[in-house]
Amino acid sequence: MKKLVAILILVGQITYAQNTQKKDSASTTLEDVFITANRTKTSRRETPVAISKITAKTIDETKASSLYEIANKVPGVVMVNLGNEQHAMSIRQPISYSSYYLYLEDGLPIRPLGVFNHNALLEINQFNLQSIEVVKGPVSSLYGPEAIGGTINLISQKPSFYPEFKVGVQADNWGYKRVQVAAGATIGKVGFHIAGISSTQENSWMAHSDYNKDNINVRVDYAITDNTRLISNTMIGKYFSDMSGSVNESDFNNRNSTSTSDFTYRKSDALRTRLTLEHDWNSNSNSALTVYHRDNKLGQNPSYGIRWSPTINPTTATGEINTNNFKSYGALAQHTQKFDFWNTNMVSGASFDFSPVTYNAYLIQLEAELNPGESGKQTVNQYQIVAELPDVKLADYTADIYNTAIFNQISFSPIQELIVTLGGRYDAMKLNYENALDNSIGAKTYDKFTFKAGANYNPLKETGFYGNYSQGFAPPGITSIFRAKSGTGGATAVPAEFYYNLQPATFENFEVGGWLSLFENKFSFDYALYYMEGTNELLSIRLEDNSTDYRSAGKTSHRGIEFGFNYKPTTQWNLRVGGTVAEHRYIDFAVSDKTTDTLQNLGGYEMPQAPRWAGNSEVSYYPNWLPNFRAAVEWQYISSYYQNQVNTVKYAGYNLFNARFGYQYKNVEIYGNILNVTDMLYAYNASRGNLESSQSTFTAAAPRTFLVGLQYNFSLKK
To answer: Which CA distances in Å does 371 have to 280, 384, 415?
Structure first.
C-alpha cells in the first residue's frame, strides 16, 4: 500500500508540473446534460423523452451493495431484487423477465440482440460507475430492438486529471462482505482508471443463498492530438450464486427461510472489451469508431426451471441444467454534425454485430418431499435430485447471429422556443442455426424500421414541455425459438417440434411531459404522461390435451404518469419525491384453446405483478454544525397488485424505509446503511397460477439489515 501511494504522489507531482494551466474537467457535473437520449451531449431542454440521471454524488452516498438500491431512485423504475444482485425490472411494464429493456454500458449493449438476460446487470461493477441515465419508453429508433420499456445506460468512471486512490470495505449482519479498490491519474497524454470489487455472501438469513462476485474494470485514454483520442475499456467478471428460489405462503408468513432446493445455482464468466477512436473535425463535427468484443459463459441449474404438478404425481418433479455461451465481434460508427441553419444537429451511424451462440439444456429428475396439507393443496418442503439425464435434451443448438443497423436522428429549431427531433433506424437480425434435436439447419431474419418524432417547447428559461411518438420492437429470444414444444422431444417418444414461426413484438408509444425549475434551481419538477400499446407479444396457449403452445399474438396496453420533484430549501436539507401511477392491461390475450376452459382470453384483465402505484422518496440532511456528515431516510412504496392473470388474488404491496449515514474525517470515510428499518415482512415479488388449486409463491425480502463500511479516499487535487 505504501509503495502504491508513493507512486501516485509522484505521478501527481509530474502531472501537476506539466499541466498547471489545465482545468480539472471532472470537477463539475452538469446534471441537466444527457448523453443517452440523443447519443451525444444534449441539454434537458432539447430532449423530447422522459429521461433521468443518477449523479456521481447520489451513487457515492448510497453506498449500495446491489444496483437496485440506486436504480429505484428514478421515478417510474422498479428494479426488483431477486437476491445476490439477481433482478427483474419494471419500467412502463409490469414486473417481468421479458426482453423489453436495453442495458447499455457506455452506450453499448451488454448483450447481443436475441440473447437477452434479465440478470445482465449483475455483471456491473458499482464501484466503477460515474452516473446512470435512464430513458423511459421506446428508443428503438436510436438503439434498436429491446429498447422498449426502458433503456439504462451505465456510464463508467473516466480517468481523473489528478492522481486519485480509493480503497474500502463494507459488510452487513447477514454475512455479506465486499472489498473495493479504485485508482486513476493522467500522465501527459495518457489517463487511466482502474476499479475492482470482490463480494461474498455466506450463511445469510435465507438458506442456500451464498454467492461470490469478482469484477475489475480498466479504462485507458490516450490523447493522440488535441482533437483525436483513443479510449480502451475492459471488464472482466466472475459470478457464482446459489439460487434459493421462492417460498410458499405458509413459510413466507412464518419467516421460514429454508429453501426447497439446495442444488440450484447461477454462474457467469464475462469479458467485455472495446476500443474507441474519436476525432473532432472542428467545433461542429465529430466522428467516433468503436470496435468491441464480448465473451460470456453462462450456466445454471435454475430454481424457476423446476416443474412440479400437485395433481398428477406430487412426489416427483423435473428440473434442468443449461449452459448458454456466446462471443461477439462488433463495430459501431457514429458521426455528429452541427449546422448553422435552424441550429440543426444530426447524429448518424451504423453498427454490425456477429455473435456465435451455443445453448444446451438437459433434464434432471427430482423427488419432491411434501409438506402436510389437504389434497390438492400440497406444497413442497424439499426437492432432491434423483438423476441427471444429459442425454435427454430439452434444447441443443448453435446459432450465428448477425445484427446490422443504420440510424439517423436530426433535431432543428425553426423558432427559438421550439426544437423538433426526428429519428429512424433500420435493424436486420439474421439467424443461421443448427438444431441438434431435429437435425435441422436453417436461417431466419427479423428486420424492422422504427421511427420517432418529438418536439420540445421552452417558452421560458424556467420551464419546458415536450411530446413524442416512438416505435419499438423485440424479436423473440432465440432460447424460446429452440425450446422443444410441450409433449415433444426430451423423454417423450414424439419427435421434437419448435417455435420457428414466432414473430417480433411491436410497440407504439405516445407521450407528453415537461419540467419546471424555480428559485434558482432550489425547486425542480418533471412529469410524463404516456400510452403504449404492444402487439404480437408472446402467448402461452393451453391446448385440448393440456399441453401448452407459444404464439406471437398478444396485445397489451400500458398507460401512466411519472413524476418527480426536488426541493432544496437550504444547504442543509434536500427533499426528493418520485413515483408513477400506471395501469397495465391485456387487450387481446388468448390463453386457452381448450373448449372446457371457462376463461380463454384475458382481454380486459389487469396484468399480474403490475402495481398501480410505485414511488421512491428521500430526505437528506447535511448539517452545518457538523461538516462532512450526511444522513438520509428513504421511503420505497409498492401498492397492491394481482398475483395471477385471472385477477383473483392480490399481494398487498409494502412501505419500506431505509436510512443512510456517513461521515468523512480528512481522507477517511465511515458510513452505515439500515435497510428495512422497521423489519417488516414483505416480498420482492409474489405470483400465483390461474387454477383454483394454485398456490402463491413469494420471493422473500431480507429482514432488517445493518451495513457498515470504511473507505480511504486519497487525491492530489488542489
So the answer is: 68, 14, 71
Nearest Cα to Cα of residue 420 among 38, 47, 32? 47
Domain at 166, CATH number: 2.40.170.20
Cell 413469494: give the residue: 698
Under DSSP, is residue 414 helix (H, G, I), strand (E, B) or coil? strand
Burial code of 429-459, b = ≥16 C-beta within 10 A, e = fewer?
bebebebebbeeeeebebebebebbbebbbe
pLDDT at 182: 97
Give the SS3 label for residue 407.
strand
Cell numbers for 571: 444547504
Q: How far apart are CA 617 and CA 632, in angstroms?
A: 10
Place of cell 400506471: 582
**Cβ-based neighbour number of residue 106 at 10 Å:** 18
Percentages helix, strand, coil for the chain, rounded to the nearest 5?
A: 10, 60, 35
Q: What is the pTM of this model?
A: 0.92
The pLDDT assigned to 487 comes to: 67
CB-based contact 66:86 (threshold 8 Å): no
Paired with 711 in beta bridges are 168, 669
Q: Write down the H helix ranges in 672-716.
A: none
| CA–CA–CA angle 656, 105, 79 (5° rounding) | 20
Q: Are 368 and 383 in contact (CB under 8 A)?
A: yes
Q: Are 101 and 91 in contact (CB under 8 A)?
A: yes
Q: Beta-carbon neighbour count of residue 387 at 10 Å?
A: 10
Rounded CA-CA distance 66/242 in Å is 16
CA 182 to chain CA centroid, Å, is: 23
Low-confidence ranges of the chain (pLDDT < 70): 1-31, 373-377, 486-494, 543-547, 718
Q: What is the dihedral of CA 201, 653, 374, 543, to 10 degrees?
A: -100
3-state secondary structure of 1: coil
CA distances from 414 to 418, 420, 470 (A): 7, 8, 22
CA pair distance 658, 676, nearest whole angstrom: 5
> What is the spatial distance between Cα 120 and Cα 235, in angstroms, rounded to a whole number?
14
The reported pLDDT for the residue numbered 598 is 74
Segments forming the whole domain that contains residue 431: 2-715
- 585 with 623: CB under 8 angstroms? no
For 376, the 3-state DSSP assignment is: coil
Compute the distance between CA of residue 253 and CA of residue 698 in angstroms, rounded to an integer: 10
Spatial separation of the C-alpha atoms in residues 16 and 19, rounded to whole Å: 5
C-alpha cell at 439: 437435425
Total structural domains within the chain? 1
What phi and psi values does residue 126 have, to the nearest 5 degrees? -65, -25
Residues 289 and 276 sit within 8 Å (Cβ to Cβ)? yes
Task: Report the C-alpha gap between 699 and 689 in whole angstroms.
Answer: 15
Q: What is the SS3 string spanning 256-271?
A: CCCCCCCCCEEEEEEE
Nearest to 19 by CA among 215, 182, 252, 185: 185
Name the amino acid, one letter, at 358. Answer: T
Distance CA 556, CA 562 (A): 19
What is the DSSP secondary structure assignment for residue 119, as one 8-state letter?
T
Q: What is the DSSP string of 240-300?
A: EEE----EEHHHHHTT----S-SS-EEEEEEEEEEEEEEEEEETTEEEEEEEEEEEEEEEE
